[in-house]
Structure formats: structure tokens, C-alpha cells
UniProtKB/TrEMBL annotation:
Species this chain originates from: Gallaecimonas pentaromativorans
Function recorded in the entry: Catalyzes the isomerization between 2-isopropylmalate and 3-isopropylmalate, via the formation of 2-isopropylmaleate.
Name of the protein in question: 3-isopropylmalate dehydratase large subunit
Record note on cofactor: Binds 1 [4Fe-4S] cluster per subunit.
HAMAP family tied to this protein: LeuC_type1
């Protein structure tokens, strides 16, 4: 019978099939951990006298609570709070105790968990990957079944290297044609979430397919898969192909017999005629630069369009929080902070996109612009290309890697009433600082906002969808 990619990966990992309403037990190939969702899991292990079953399958990093200001001359970092420092200290201690490889401050590869895993080649097609983090779907860009788990489950996976899971449903998002020049992966995924709605993917694993998806680079594919959760989906998947293999080849943790691995990975793609529980078709050629205007990433408009009327109470509340009225133009709204970074858009190509817009320009006087690379590797590569110089010359900040203002846990945050244009993935009320308002967009749109001092330009490539 024709199978989907999801079915193939699922089947390869069943330890014990689902039975009488009980979930299946599936094997986990890679477990990523960070300082926020791991402490209680380790405490549980200690309390029960358990060990970590496969420390070699666990990869740890410091990202959420870490300062993005440079350490002082003594190498001291300025944590926002005692609690933030404690989280970091605990992960360091737990990794030492349980024999887990931590990419801490001494690692040249430390980065946001969903940026670092792929960069090291730890993320590979056909794998099951979990992390106590909802944006684990990012790794699906490589054809890995990757999803977020809760802290209790983090403990289960640490102890057993397997997980209880109900089988999700499948949803295929087929994207025809190709994206137009000036339109990128962020515009595409915002548009898709706009079509699916906040809960449109709930209970499903999304497979993104079609010519527009195949044409995307790995960085762009990660941007797309990253935001699957914002439509409620468990995971996002893209079939591995030559783009994937070329990106992975030669990376530190990539398989030694790489050609044999590729031969296997080629068999993962969805068979002709396989059926999905749900399907959505999108025409890439009809999408323009896109931006959010509400308090969930499904409230999107093409740049140049007026703020639409609220369709329900949730949207009405969102408009009032955002201090917006139907019919208003976002090009009239002043911006206070521009943030370029996060596991959605903190990669080298994003740094290049932002620098390209900033070249020869200055950030508007009233705007604070923060550029935060997703990892140490990206920071080094960007600096080798001179991107930091362009960014600094424009009057923006070039900071140390981490989650930073995406979630504002490390002290990088907006003040109440401030307007933020951000390349991250969540615009929930207060996400980037209590009482602040966030507009999500691509690095190019965000960088242009920093220069103009307004959320976006009055018009962009016309959307015809
Ligand atoms: C802190 C962590 C649990 C959280 C997540 O699950 O995604 C964070 O990474 C986020 O983006 O909101
Ligand atoms: S960058 Fe943002 S979305 Fe990504 S893991 Fe960090 S906090 Fe979560």
C-alpha cells in the first residue's frame, strides 16, 4: 500500500504498537535538551535513582536564558536574574553528572537548539527527534519526524530513549509554482498559517511538498517547518532530496558512510498515490511579502493591505491589544524595536538578508535594532563575511547567540506599549515584553522597518491570492 513519509518513519520506530486505546511506544533517535525544560526531568531521574539510558543520543545547549551581551574582561556574563543563572548552572551540572555532551559557553557550536542540531549534522532524515520545546518541528526540514514534548516526557526519554505517542493524522500542504523574487520562506509560512488558521493543523503532522518547496534551500525549509506548531501541528516534514544531502555532507555528526545513508534516505519520500487525512493547496506565485497584525501568527496580511475587520471575539481582542483599528495601514505605525534572530530566522542567510537591506543606510533614530545570530557558527561565518560591520555601521546591535527577544527570557525585551517588528515566530500578547506589541515578518521586511522607522512600507509586490 502506498505510504506517506510520516507512515514510513513512524513504522520504523515502533517499539510496541498502540493497543486498545493505549499509545504506541516509539524509539527516539535524538533527544535535544536546553536549560528551561530539563531541570525537573533530571530531578525526577535523581529522585528515582535512574540513569540516562543513552547519553550519546542526547545533545544539550544553552540558549533561552543566556545573556546576549558579551562577557566582561573576566569572562563573566550578566544574567537577567538569579533564576536564569540557576537554570544554566543546573544544566551544566546535570550534563556532567549524567555524561551528556553540553554545547556550553566553551563550545564553538553553542546555539539555539534548533539551529545547532542541524548545523552539527545531528539532525538527519528518517530520524525521530524530540526536545522539550515546541519548535522542534524545525528539524522536519530534513525529513525527520521531530516534535516537542513536555518536561515529564523529557524525563521518560532520558530514562528509556523511547516515548509513548498517539499516532497523529497527516496533512499535506502542496505548494505549486515558485516564490516570486523578493518573497521568501517566512512570507510563505505566514501565508500558509493564515490559510490554515491557528488550530488548522491540530493533531496533524504536516508534509510540505510541491515544486515551490523543492526549490527552497535548507535554511528556508527550516523556516517553514519551524512554524508548523503555530498552526497547531505536531510536526512539519519535507522529503529529503539532493538539497538536503548536499547540506548535510561532511558535517561533524553526519554518517560516516554517507552514500549508503543517502540511498536509504531516498526511500523515505511519500509514495505516489498515498493519501492524507487533510490537504491544502497553495499557489506560491500569488504570495507577496506578508506580515502579522494580531496576537497569533495566523492573523496575517499582505504588506500594503489595510488591517482587516475582526472576524470573531478573539480577533477583536487581538486588535485592541495591538492598538489597531480595521482599515488602518501598518505603514503609518511607528516601530520602536526591530529584532532579527530566533530559530525561525536567525541563520546565516537571514543575517545576509538583513545586512543587504541595511547596507548604505542608517537605522532610524527612534529605533533600536538588535541582530542576534542563532549560533556561534553563524556568528563566526557572518563576521568572516563582514556582515557585522555592515550591521554596526547602520547603527544596529550585533549580539551574542541565543533566543534573546524571541521569548524575552534573558532580559532582551520591549517595554510596555512598544512596537516590535520581529523575525521570530510568536506574537502572543506580552511575548516580547509585557504590554508590548509584535509584528512578525521576514528579515528583509524587518530590516526595512528599522531604516524607515515604520512597521512596513506602504506597498509591496501585489498579492493576487
Ligand atoms: C521555553 C520553551 C519551552 C518554549 C517552547 O516550548 O517553545 C520556547 O522555546 C518558545 O518558543 O516558546
Ligand atoms: S528562538 Fe524562540 S522559538 Fe526558538 S527555541 Fe528559542 S524561544 Fe523558542
Amino acid at each position: 500500500m502506498a505510504q506517506t513519509m510520516f507512515d514510513k518513519i513512524w513504522q520504523r520506530h515502533i517499539v510496541k504498537p498502540a493497543e486498545n486505546g493505549h499509545p504506541a511506544v516509539i524509539y527516539i533517535d535524538l533527544h535535544l535538551i536546553h536549560e528551561v525544560t530539563s531541570p525537573q526531568a533530571f530531578t525526577e531521574l535523581k529522585n528515582r535513582g535512574l540513569t540516562v539510558r543513552r547519553p550519546d543520543k542526547v545533545l544539550a545547549t544553552l540558549d533561552h536564558s543566556t545573556p546576549t551581551s558579551a562577557p566582561d574582561a573576566q569572562g563573566q556574563r550578566k544574567y537577567v536574574s538569579e533564576a536564569a543563572w540557576q537554570q544554566v548552572r543546573k544544566l551544566q551540572e546535570n550534563c556532567r553528572r549524567f555524561g551528556i555532551h553540553l554545547h556550553g559557553f566553551d563550545s564553538p557550536h553553542r546555539g539555539i537548539v534548533h539551529v545547532m542540531g542541524p548545523e552539527l549534522g545531528a539532525t538527519q532524515p528518517g530520524m525521530t527527534i524530540v526536545c522539550g520545546d515546541s519548535h522542534t518541528a524545525t528539524h522536519g526540514a530534513f525529513g525527520a519526524l521531530a516534535f516537542g514534548i513536555g518536561t515529564t516526557e523529557v524525563g521518560h526519554v532520558l530514562a528509556t530513549q523511547s516515548l509513548l505517542q498517539h499516532k497523529p493524522k497527516t496533512l499535506r500542504v502542496w505548494v505549486d509554482n515558485t516564490l516570486r523574487p523578493g518573497v521568501g520562506a517566512k512570507d510563505l509560512i505566514l501565508h500558509i498559517i493564515g490559510k490554515l488558521g491557528m488550530g488548522g493543523g491540530t493533531g496533524h503532522v504536516i508534509e510540505y511538498a510541491g515544486p515551490a518547496i523543492e526549490a527552497l534551500t535548507m535554511e528556508e525549509r527550516m523556516t517553514v517547518c519551524n512554524m508548523s506548531i503555530e498552526a497547531g501541528a505536531r510536526a512539519g516534514l519535507i522529503a529529503p532530496d539532493e538539497t538536503t544531502f548536499n547540506w548535510l555532507r561532511g558535517r561533524q555528526m553526519a554518517p560516516k558512510d554517507f552514500d549508503a545513508a543517502c540511498a536509504d534516505w531516498r526511500t523515505l519520500r511519500t509514495d505516489e498515490g498515498a493519501s492524507f487525512d487533510k490537504e491544502l493547496r497553495v499557489d506560491a506565485a500569488k504570495i507577496g511579502p506578508t506580515i502579522t497584525y494580531g496576537t497569533h501568527p495566523g492573523m496575517v496580511i499582505p504588506i500594503g493591505a489595510a488591517v482587516p475587520a475582526a472576524r470573531d471575539e478573539v480577533e477583536a481582542k487581538a486588535l485592541s491589544y495591538m492598538n489597531l483599528k480595521a482599515g488602518e495601514q501598518l505603514s503609518d505605525r511607528k516601530v520602536d524595536i526591530v529584532f532579527i534572530g530566533s530559530c525561525t530566522n536567525g541563520r546565516l542567510s537571514d543575517m545576509r538578508e538583513a545586512a543587504n537591506e541595511l547596507k548604505g543606510h542608517k537605522v532610524a533614530k527612534s529605533v533600536r535594532m538588535m541582530v542576534v545570530p542563532g549560533s556561534e557558527d553563524i556568528k563566526r561565518q557572518a563576521e568572516a563575511e563582514g556582515l557585522d560591520k555592515i550591521i554596526l555601521a547602520a547603527g544596529a546591535e550585533w549580539r551574542e547567540p541565543g533566543c534573546s527577544m524571541c521569548i524575552a527570557m534573558n532580559g532582551d525585551m520591549a517595554k510596555p506599549g512598544q512596537t516590535v517588528v520581529s523575525t521570530s515566530n510568536r506574537n502572543f500578547a506580552g511575548r516580547q515584553g509585557p504590554g508590548s506589541q509584535s509584528f512578525l515578518a521576514s528579515p528583509a521586511v524587518a530590516a526595512r522597518a528599522a531604516v524607515s522607522g515604520f512597521v512596513c512600507e506602504p506597498q509591496a509586490i501585489e498579492e493576487t491570492a
